[in-house]
Design brief:
Order of helices and strands: EHEEHEHEHHEEHHEEHHEEHHH
Number of helices: 12
Number of strands: 11
Helix content: 40-55%
Strand content: 5-15%
Largest sheet: 7 strands, antiparallel
Radius of gyration: 20 Å
Structural class: alpha+beta
Length: about 375
């Protein structure tokens, strides 16, 4: 049996236990009308066997996996979580969809009634009305100074991760022209977008303090950078992605992210610096990835020219292959990645459904994909 303990991809010696956990956000809809269902508090109460969190809008809910030591274990927990939220929603007459933005938006004033969210609404006004669903991958990196350097190494890969998981082209029943409309909406928050290039945890903390002091955010939990240090866990959190359409794609994302973190830690330990990609340039590259998705191209910092996005993703796979092989995840990751590039991600599938049958077909397609590949909780976890 392959050991689940990650190893240094360069030197082969055992290193930190790179545990991983995932949060997925879903839109709740009324299956009869396709309109948002403002039932997140009721759904959360109906799922005692699952950790469900309330989100900003009453039509949003979030699942959280336990801390996992391997991608097969995480894959199993993701399946279980999606089934749990689906069963809990069904008890209330609603249905969760894995989409980055709702196909139809909720009525105004649909914010979840918690003190924190109401405070956000009072401070940020219209921004708090948005409904966006992402996927957050946490990987254990206990040393905060190392985690800041890992963030620097991850920055150039953010456009490729966004393009791969784009799953929000349609809102109000129409194509927005963007594979990830969520990324555009998310970017309106004052602290959203790619993280700056930072040199230490002290510099990171100083910047967060300044954001709070000048009123751009209310607290450290509102640091919405695409890569951030968790405010309450010993992890680095990668937040660039739309919630993927299928559980297989979420497991793929987690495998890629964990391997990128492992590879980056090895680079930090070896004293290899990261490329200091200009923040404005990186924002532009992410915006381009949000617009074009898998059909676009990316500026490669190591070659100074644009490469078709599938080529950039293949380059990423090559870059992290030693880490994937040491963890026993390479064959799964390669196969799952090939399937997405061949069959399309959520954005591709939503647009095809819209072309064939309009918004109602999009809703049917995304409802099916949300639980595609999920297994009963009592089934054995994959080998």
């Amino acid at each position: 049996m392959v050991s689940t303990e990650p190893r240094d991809p360069l030197h082969g010696n055992s290193i930190r236990p790179f545990t991983v956990g995932v949060e997925e956000e879903f839109v709740l809809i009324d299956p009869a009308t396709g309109r948002p269902s403002l039932t997140n508090t009721v759904v959360a109460a109906r799922a005692p066997d699952a950790e469900l969190q309330l989100e900003l809008s009453q039509c949003q809910i979030e699942t959280c996996t336990p801390v996992c030591t391997s991608i097969p274990e995480l894959h199993h927990e993701l399946r279980r979580a999606r089934l749990s939220v689906t069963h809990a929603a069904a008890r209330t007459g609603s249905l969760p969809l894995a989409v980055g933005v709702p196909i139809w938006g909720p009525p105004r004033g649909s914010m979840t009634d918690t003190p924190r969210y109401q405070r956000m609404a009072a401070h940020f006004g219209e921004l708090a009305e948005q409904v966006i669903c992402g996927c957050h991958v946490h990987v254990c990196v206990p040393d905060r100074d190392v985690a800041v350097q890992v963030s620097n190494h991850l920055r150039p890969w953010l456009p490729a991760l966004l393009a791969l998981t784009a799953n929000s082209p349609i809102t109000e029943g129409a194509d927005t022209g963007y594979a990830s409309w969520r990324h555009l909406l998310w970017g309106r928050w004052p602290s959203a977008g790619p993280p700056p290039y930072l040199r230490s945890a002290a510099e990171y903390d100083d910047m967060v303090t300044k954001l709070v002091d000048d009123g751009r955010i209310l607290d450290a939990a509102m640091v919405y950078w695409d890569v951030r240090l968790s405010s309450h866990l010993p992890t680095i959190e990668i937040r660039i992605s739309d919630v993927p359409a299928t559980v297989e794609e979420t497991a793929l994302l987690a495998s890629l992210v964990r391997a990128l973190v492992i590879t980056s830690v090895a680079a930090v330990d070896s004293g290899r610096p990261s490329a200091p990609v200009d923040l404005a340039h990186l924002r532009s590259a992410c915006r381009r990835a949000a617009r074009d998705g898998l059909s676009g191209s990316q500026f490669r910092t190591d070659t100074t020219h644009f490469t078709p996005m599938p080529g950039s993703i293949a380059h990423m796979l090559t870059h992290i292959r030693p880490a994937l092989e040491q963890a026993g995840d390479y064959e799964f990751t390669r196969g799952a990645l090939a399937a997405v590039l061949r069959g399309g991600n959520g954005a591709v599938r939503q647009r095809e459904a819209l072309r064939v049958g309009g918004p109602s077909q999009v809703l049917k397609q995304m409802a099916r994909l949300t639980t595609e590949g999920c297994v009963a909780t009592e089934d054995r976890q994959p080998a």
